[in-house]
Amino acid sequence: MHEAKQIWNVKRLLNWATNFFTAKNIAQPKLSAELLLASVLNYSRMQLYLHFDYVPGENELARFKEYILKRIQNIPVQYILKESYFRNLKLYVDESVLIPRPETELLVDKVLFTIIEYLKCFSDYRYLQEKGQKNILNILEIGTGSGAITISLASELDNFINNFAAKDIDFKSGFQWNILATEKSSEAILIARKNANKLISPENLSKIEFIECDILPDYNAGFNKNFLRNINIVVSNPPYIRENDYNKLPVEVLNYEPKQALLAGKTGLEVYNRILQKIKPYIFPGLCYIIFEIDPAISLSLKDLVINTLDGAVVTIEKDYNNRDRIMLIKI
C-alpha cells in the first residue's frame, strides 16, 4: 500500500515551523511561526486558527519558506515583514530604525496624560499670559526613529483630549498643537516621513515637522523664532545602553538593530546629558515637562544628573509592565 501523502495545511505548517524554530533556538518560536504565516496568507493570527484546514498554494509555501530561512538567521520578524505594530498603528520598519517596543507605548501614554496636566494650566489664561505663553502646545520629540511616538500622538491627541479632558478642563477656542520631531539618521527620518504620510490625516500632518539633525537643529532663524523659550513638552527614547551591556543584548538585537540608536556610551547618561544641555534655551520657563524612556540600571544616576542640570526640576520615575523603572517625568 502506498503511504498517504501528507497535506501541508495551516495547522501542520504552524506546528512544523514552531518545532523547527524551537530546535534552532529562535526566540518566540510559536509567535514567529504565526506572524510569518499570517503575513503570507494575509490573515490575522486569529484567522489562522479559523482556517486550520486551508492548504496554501505553491507561491505561498515558497514565500513562507523564504521567511523561515531568514528567521533562523535571527533576523527579527518585523524586519522580515517590513512592518511593526505599535499601539493602533502598523508602521513600516527596516534595519535603519529600532523596532518599537511595548514599553515605549507607556511613554506615549505618559505624554498624553501630561498634556492633560498642561491643558489644566492652559485653561487658566491669566497664569499663562503672565508667563508669556500663547495658546499653542509645542511638543518636541528627540530621536523619532520610525516616527512611532510622534505619529501616535498626532493620531490620538485630539480624541484623547475630547474623551478624557473635556469635563475637567475649561476649554477656550483657538487651542493648537505642533510637534517637532528630530532625527540624526537620514535613513530613519525618511521612514518616519513615509509612515507619517501614510498614517496621519492631512490636517494633522501639517502640524508636524520632521528635521534631520542631532538633537536640535543648528542655529536657524525660523526655528529659534518659533521655539526659543516656547517648548512645552519634550519626549525622547534616546540611546541608553551602556558599553558593558551592549554585547549582552539578544543576538537579533545585536546583529540587526541600529547600534547608534541603542548604544549611549560608558555610563548610559551621555545622550541624556547632551539633550538636557541643548534644550535649555528652548523650554518654556514655568511650564515645561520632559519625559524620557530610561534604562532601569541608570534611573537614579539620571535623576541626579537632571536635578544638577535643570534648576527647580521635579523628577518622578514610573514602572513598566515588569515593575522596572522605565519612564522619567521631569517638571520644570
Low-pLDDT sequence parts: none
Bin the strand percentage: 15-25%
Number of domains: 2
The first-level CATH class of the largest domain is given as Alpha Beta
Roughly what percent helix?
40-55%
CATH fold field value of the largest domain: Rossmann fold
Shape category:
elongated
- At CATH level 2, the architecture of the largest domain is 3-Layer(aba) Sandwich
Our count of helices gives 15
Mean pLDDT: 91
Corresponding CATH superfamily of the largest domain:
Vaccinia Virus protein VP39
Structural class: alpha/beta
The main pleated sheet reads as: 7 strands, mixed
Cα gyration radius (Å): 23 Å
Rounded to the nearest angstrom, the distance between the terminal CA atoms is: 81 Å
Count of beta strands:
11
Order of helices and strands: HHHHHEEHHEHEHHEHEEHHEHEHEE
In the sheet with the most strands, the strands line up as: 5-4-3-6-9-11-10
Description of the molecule:
The chain folds into 2 domains: 64 residues; 230 residues, 3-Layer(aba) Sandwich (Rossmann fold). Helix 8 links the parallel strand 3 and strand 4. The strands form 3 sheets. It has a 7-stranded mixed beta sheet with strand order 5-4-3-6-9-11-10, sandwiched between helices. It has a two-stranded antiparallel ribbon with strand order 1-2. With 332 residues, the chain is an alpha/beta fold. It contains 15 helices and 11 strands.
How do the helices and strands line up, and which of them pair or pack?
Layout lengths: L9 H14 L5 H13 L3 H6 L7 H14 L5 H5 L2 E3 L2 E3 L10 H21 L2 H7 L4 E7 L5 H17 L11 E8 L2 H14 L2 H4 L2 E5 L8 H7 L5 E4 L4 E2 H4 L4 H6 L6 E3 L4 H10 L9 E5 L5 H11 L4 E6 L5 E7 L1
Parallel strand pairs: 3-4, 3-6, 4-5, 6-9, 7-8
Antiparallel strand pairs: 1-2, 9-11, 10-11
Helix pairs in contact: 1-2, 2-4, 6-8, 14-15
